[in-house]
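--- STAGE predict ---
source: upstream dedup step, 1 unique chain passed
mode: sequence only
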Amino acid sequence: MNDFIEAVPTIIERAGWLAPLIFILLHLIRPFLFIPVIVVCIAGGYFFGFFYGSMYSLIGLTLMCFFFYKFVNYFPSLRNRMAKMKAKIFKNRQLTLGQVMILRMLPFVHFHLLSLYLMEMTSSFKEYMKYSFGGLIIPSLLFTSFGQAISEMSLYGSLFVLLVLFGIFYLLGQKGTITYKWEKFFASRSMSE
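--- STAGE serialize ---
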């Protein structure tokens, strides 16, 4: 596996116009290679720059959420196994949508367990994809642009960032927290005029 990881930069550099497709494909096979999301996004920023790296990461992560939804529904035994893992890790805790979005920004939280939470929170595939896409925008931008800076921070700086994210996570889970509907947050121009 280390040989594959070391070969990826060479493959992308020699691929030319196919490089974005290879990079998006890397997002799709990433779970099978046990490569963290943050590593792939940082590579996107390195090889394609902030704008294109973020865009390709967003496309790859959105496609990964799409295939995860289809795959888990096609294989109910896999969904049951992931539900058991989710119950073991999160101790049957109910998370809010905001908490799931914050957890998406933490590199050590299992990406597909959060997708499973989104599947359980939403009532349809369309709604799941809408929230998946919306919840991937900030992590794609964050990991692509600041991933390298976060990984090179001092121990105290890293701990401070984690404490801030955990504080936001806690506040979003409080009862009485204001919840926003997608339609209200992203109101169409015709509704606001």
